[in-house]
Design brief:
The protein contains three helices and five strands; from the N terminus they run βαβββαβα. With 110 residues, it is α+β, with helices and mostly antiparallel strands. The longest helix is centred in the N-terminal third of the chain and has 13 residues, at 15-27. Strands 1, 2, 3, 4 and 5 form a five-stranded antiparallel sheet that branches.
Length: 110
């Protein structure tokens, strides 16, 4: 049975923090790769006020099996009180790429 692959996303207000979140997850084998999008403008309600901020979106490619560990890691490492955390199911793709994601997210041998 092919691995179940997901894309998980978060945003952060600093490019260096985005890079640290991306690199740290890949180094820990929680994601096979992470893309950092160009800065975007976020408009949101926070603590009763409408806010506008510049943010970078980090998109992780991982397996459904590794997703809980990735979510816990992002929750620990993210500087926001309530970080964005959205997961998207991958419903298809290159078999070679999806297999690569699964291979690269296997926990390292002790």
């Amino acid at each position: 049975m092919p691995p179940v692959i997901v894309v998980a996303q978060t945003t952060v207000d600093d490019e260096d923090k985005a890079t640290a979140l991306a690199r740290g997850a890949v180094e820990a084998r929680l994601a096979a790769c992470a893309h950092i999008d160009a800065p975007l403008t976020a408009v949101y309600r926070w603590q009763g006020a409408v806010e506008t901020a510049r943010e970078w979106r980090v998109s992780y490619k991982t397996t459904a099996a590794r997703l809980p560990d990735l979510a816990a890691w992002v929750d620990r490492e993210h500087p926001y009180d309530v970080p964005e955390w959205i997961t998207l199911s991958v419903t298809g793709g290159s078999e070679a790429y999806l297999t690569w994601v699964a291979e690269e997210t296997k926990p390292a041998d002790p």
